[in-house]
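Prompt: May I have another protein with tokenized structure?
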Amino acid sequence: MRALAASSRRALAPTALQRLQPRRQASRAMPPPATATAGGAPQQPATPAARPSERQQHAAYQAAFFNEQHVKELRASITPDVEARLARVAASIPGLSAETRVLDAGAGEGALIPHLQARGVRDVLAVDVSPAMLAALQRRAGQPSSLGNDACVRTWLGDVADLPGYQGPFDVAIFNAVFGNLLDAHATLASTCFVLRPGSYVVISHPLGRPWHESLRAKQPQLVPNELPQREALELLIHDLPLQLVSLADEPDFYMALLQVPKGYAHPAAPLRLAGNVTTGFGRGSKQLGVPTANLPPAPLAEQLAQLPAGVYFGWAQLNADVSWPEADRQVHPMVMNIGRRPTFGDAQPELSVEAHIMHKYSQDFYGQPLRLLVLGFIRPEMRFSGLQELLARINADVGVARSQLGTPRWQPYREQLAAEAPPSA
């Protein structure tokens, strides 16, 4: 790709190659008004926006930078060699077909989309913060169908981190020539996982390679605040996310990391057994949220918990109550569990807690009773939410994920396994 920026504009704008990357990266950030659009049609917020957050300010900068002039320069700068590397990105994604739903995060003017279509993909949601970029993309791809279920190329103006859940689920999410422009790569990946199916892929790519990207980052740190991670940094970035590194091509002129949401959300340490006597918690599960939890003391579980980053898990639970309890109370039930320090509540000295919400209505309280948990899947990292309503909505979503996954044949044998390991009832 050739540098098209005139020397007189160099302080303001990067080269044409530089513009390719930022545009895609710009799609990660959202303009301060948080104007989300579907099919390119803007929807104005009902009330004035509060003071822009750091992420919104970053998005606004990116959105303003990538204007119509940059669209033209970007299009002119994509050489046959760059096209070949974009084709390589598409060719390296497993399982693409006419049934695949793709999220193109930071799509820019859609340079990667023809190569996805060449592999049979028909259903693409292109996300970007730049109206000029998405307008050019839609002109190139054609107007979307007026029928919401038709497979076609659609656009959504805004930050991928703010993409509504109803837009998913997707089979592939692609960050092509945009990852370095993200203000918070970890948070973006975490939110993206919410709209991906189990077994889906995340692609982080750049057709010009990491050395070129780092050169640009040195010249334009505000535009490109983050690196394209090398293997060790990438593994650290995703260590507490429901993602696994499948492959990494880190070549002088090509970069592509392929990540996968594990099938069934399986955690690498699964099955992992936790057991202890139920202790009192903070009273928030049932009193404030209406989601009662059984707490296990974390200290005796230190060895097992060392294998589990803070976050939300699912699996099976069994209360080892005596025979005086109803049989239903003594059976194995699905559970969703949080390990962490409850950042949303802002405790001054947060202590580590292990809290399991068991999907069964017990006949009585069971403080002090022995409880066994079999941990199987990992849904998401622990996160700070803006308030109790947002937290409760996410908890309910977590419960839904856990219930649906535990209802599949993959995890049913572990239910019988936990039951078979039960000690004799008194």
In short: The longest strand covers residues 370-381.
